[in-house]
Write a structure and sequence with these properties.
four-stranded mixed beta sheet; 141 residues; alpha/beta
Length: 141
């Protein structure tokens, strides 16, 4: 399989609240909620980098579409990694997330592997890691 992942979709309980968090709080670019004319279709897309998008979609609608039962969310299933260029930028993004309403679960700190990172939960409990890795250069597109 050649990787062609272009959209990461997060199931949310309150689409408007999540839209405000990502758009107004974190400053991600979006056209807002689209697809409201379709049953189970309301979704918002946020531009990330190099054609990648983050989508938010109601968990109940996602369950309907996939024919899976609606299950309780678990923040420890995966993390979304946001790589930045410095320790100071980790601190800035963590502060921005906290101000936007995120729950800081792991304040920024020096990591055992030589980097610097912190973790926060978005309003629906999705776990984000904000990280500076001295071995990686972030794409500044």
């Amino acid at each position: 399989m050649k990787p062609r992942i272009t959209v990461l979709t997060l199931g949310v309980d309150d689409l408007e609240r999540s839209l405000r968090f990502y758009r107004d709080g974190l400053g991600l670019a979006t056209e807002g909620i689209v697809g409201e004319e379709f049953e189970h279709g309301a979704v918002a897309f946020f531009d990330l980098q190099a054609g990648m998008k983050l989508a938010i979609w109601r968990r109940a609608d996602m369950a309907h579409e996939t024919k899976l039962p609606l299950a309780p969310p678990s923040p420890t299933e995966f993390t979304i990694g946001h790589n930045v260029g410095s320790k100071a930028e980790v601190d800035r993004v963590m502060a921005l997330a906290g101000k936007a309403g995120a729950t800081i679960v792991d304040p920024a700190h020096d990591a055992f592997w030589g980097g610097y990172s912190g973790h926060f939960l978005d309003p629906d409990g999705h776990l984000w890691e904000v990280v500076w890795n001295p071995a990686w250069e972030p794409d500044e597109d």
